[in-house]
Design goal:
4 helices; alpha+beta; about 35% helix
Amino acid sequence: MAPRSAEASRKTKETDISASVHVDGSGKSDIATGVGFFDHMLDQLSRHSLIDMTVRAKGDLHIDDHHTVEDTGIALGQALTKALGERRGIMRYASIDLAMDETLTRAAIDVSGRPFLVWNVSFSSPKIGTFDTELVREFFQALAQNAGITLHVTNHYGANNHHIAETCFKAVARALRAALEPDPRQPDAVPSTKGSLKG
């Protein structure tokens, strides 16, 4: 399998973002978005997916964090889809129930080329510190749309909002790791009866 690495950038009047990924990495991250809690979540995404990630983001944080979080998801998704190319030789599907203390969250992934997000996650507070909890969904919506993945995330239960958010990122990370692993039984095949995972 060829090296799976790529970069993407996005510059608008609201944000200036660059992102790079190395799918077959060791989970090293170098993240600076200006949003502390989001940086922590992206570190978790990298560490538990074993995808090396570098992200630099400058956004209109004087307004709020929305544009920075959403556009980071767009850039990471675009980098990921570039890195995967034809998506040959991948396992394609994966799911995991991930526990963290009192919280349990499931992530299921189809690296299908067809973007879709099903989001069954609720928070009991609009904020985690200064971070808007609704932005967790916005990030995964942008990531799924631009990475061309079908993603289902369900929080079964949990009391602590930080834990709920963190299990979403960790569960998606572990599912991504499993879905993007090389399939030793069909290392050169596109895992689809259509012969294509381009949507």
